[in-house]
Amino acid sequence: MAVRLAPLLGLLACAGAVIWGLRAGVLDSQEHLQSFIDSLGAFGPVVLVLLSGASVVFPIIPGGILVLAAPVLFGPVEGTLLSYLAVCAGSFANFAIARHVGLGLIERAFSESTVEKYLGWTRRPRFTTLFATAIALPVAPDDLLCYLAGTTRMRWRTFALIILACKPWALLAYGLGVSALLMKVVPW
Description:
Structural class: mainly alpha
Low-confidence stretches: none
Order of helices and strands: HHHHHHHHHH
Number of helices: 10
Distance between the termini: 40 Å
Number of strands: 0
Radius of gyration: 17 Å
Shape: globular
Mean pLDDT: 86
Largest sheet: none
């Protein structure tokens, strides 16, 4: 039950951070936000990478929020690179965890219907192609798919190649695309 409540708690923590940012004046303007990020020095990118990587492995903080925030907080190039490093590291961790633990953990962390739906993919002859396509597009539950891939016969080398080559496209589309749209909507 704790595993399933964790994303809700993470979302509440994010909402609390936004409320704090509004009250503290950090979110009053892009300049104030940039000043706050700059005041963190090297600690800021390190925290983003650690939180983003952890959100892939432990879905406590909705990872999409951090992928959207990275280009806004650190600029389009540095923010996207930081997200890429963190998401790839988290994906590798998911694959390794599933290799050692198996389906038991996955079935506890995700809903039964979602696991069954995507578990069926792993039994298809073209699973590797489906997996690569899903990783490249920002619409699939990548964290779950990386866990499930770890329960298959997929080689580490194949998994790494797919993650490293396909993940940037999803991050560019989601991170840069959606954050650019949000920046047009947010009244800064």
